[in-house]
Amino acid sequence: MITKLRKTLCALSILSLITANPSLAVNEQDIINADKTPGVWLSHGRTYDEKRFSPLEQIHSDNVDDLGLTWQYATGNTRGMEATPIVADGVMYITTAWSRVAALDAKTGKSIWTFDPMVAGKKGRDACCDVVNRGLAIWGDTVFLGALDGRLIALNKHDGKVIWSQQTTDPKKPYTITGAPRVVKGKVIIGNGGAEFGVRGYFSAYHVLTGELAWRFYTVPTQLQEVNEGEHLSKARDSWSPQSLWNTGLGGTVWDSFAYDPSLNLLYVGVGNASQYNRKQRSPGGGDNLFVASILAVNPDTGKLVWHYQTTPAESWDYTATQHMILADINIMGQERKVLMQAPKNGFFYVIDRATGELISAKNYVPVNWASHIDVESGRPVETGIGDWSNTQRMISPAIIGGHNWHPMSYSDSTGLVYIPTIHTTYPYKPNSQYQYDPKGFNTGEDFAGLAASSPDIVPGFCSPTRLTAWDPVEQKQAWQVKFSRGVSAGILSTAGGLVFQGTTDGALHAYNDNDGDLLWSQNVNVGIMAPPISYAVDGEQYIAVLAGLGGSQGGHGDELENANSGHVFAFKLNGNLTPPNIASRDTLVKVQATALDEESYSRGRSLYAVHCLRCHGFAAKSSGLYPDLRHSEQGVHNIWKEIVIDGVFADKGMASFKDSLNSDDVNDIHGYVIQQAISSDALTHRLLKRVVSQVCIPAEWLAD
Ligand code: CA
After folding, report:
1. Structural domain containing residue 425
2. Is 705 a catalytic residue?
């Protein structure tokens, strides 16, 4: 009772501040002082420290039972939704698949304006992991969008009209933008992705008002020693072999995370994996390959490197350090430390002194077998050798999707815990000994054809592939954990109301007790959720909101969806009583009638499928349903198969032409293989197989102690 009274009083005092945001045009001080106006959400991680912790506590553990849906907005598209909304002055700004933008009344969900940058559908071929977008930045009267095709676009926040637009990447190369910009000291910071295809990573700063380039920071060197692109690259060049595969661009893309400490004047940047993956082929003879898989601290005024910490030297497994970084001041061994925390894909949770880059501690937060531990003295992982790419495929943990991917975590100022959406899987890395750079294709150096031939039906994983893990960063140990049987991870919000919010693959939003992980509240919305929830307030009422819609790197594979994927924004408040949408079941699966292929065409089709089609349409031609399940294509699709793959007649839908990579015979064999897969696994057997696959567990002996 006393707790309840205290919470009500606190809520009242905070709510009196909610509508007191004095400035309609957002500036840096508004973001720095965001805790004084907790009803707004002005930057990707709410504040520059990216804690994703809301000080609002009108909704708390004692009344969360009364939380209910109050408005919903259908985005009108069916691909992955990963964005964090921005909320300012009662308006919510969101991005959806294909880099589309909408401004909504944050109280009612009514559309104010929408903007479609009209990204060409064929650009979808350059996206490793769906045509997603993670959100906007806001500054002054402008919102900033990074579009999939590499444009950075400034929009008038009142009407969605374009103020300026800059092409930030070479449109001839397979760069994409899926990450949210940040605005720091009057500059828009934006990175890009594409390391799987082979590009050179960098991030840039543009002036907010003019769109003029202020500076650009390349994360990896080129072979050309005479080109001066900053001192940091002279140092980096020594960490690469002179025989490196320079034409792949080397990777090191900056596709997601940034954080900023105004008092230290440091911009923190998460750098992605190397291109291609296998270091023995990529940089023969060794070297750490700076600055792949690193955290960088950069002066935002000049774009000059201040310090770096490489999480995975000579990264070889797609172990990006682009994962969400959180800045907090925490007490470690009696000392107040300014730390940066990250749970990158490599499976270790890092606590780093953010002023100096010194490693304070690191501990694995998921099962890991590529390294035994991180040596704190040197700051380097101690590799076990299990991850040393050999010609025999090995099961390596974490998997290629990482122990934690893009899904944001959250740090609670109340509990001091970090809530991490963790992924517990393993992956059979297999090198392609015949690898050659392909300017039009995937350049990870993996032998997809060999993998498809040796394990055609198994998608390996742990029994419980995704979890919500509450992590104590001081003790470096798990505080509590919730296990899910289904496979797509989802971002986190924690609040001063003692709650942790997370969505689920099967279409619900959950609220947990932040101290012990007790499930306190759940509501079905009938659309799978991966995006992180946010909290804001309008007219004295607190809201929880989240985008729904599966997709991304995990969404196309794995569990088959029951329902169609229908992009939505859902907003909840106390005593909300709206009924969630009724989402239709997926279309009835179509069965094909055809004769079996000869063995040679079948295995040729299987190899070509694995190299060119698998990453979207799924292992063994089994899609989760987000991308068309080719086995169940309508007859009309079979009739124009060649026109689709060669001539690109579905390019507007995201299916680009592959005529630069496949000829008519290739397409015939792929078609035959898909038909064969359809014959050998009709809808019933597929569902049975799904159950079997979900029971394939990774034996403990595959993992190091
Ligand atoms: Ca990657």
Report:
1. 122-487
2. no
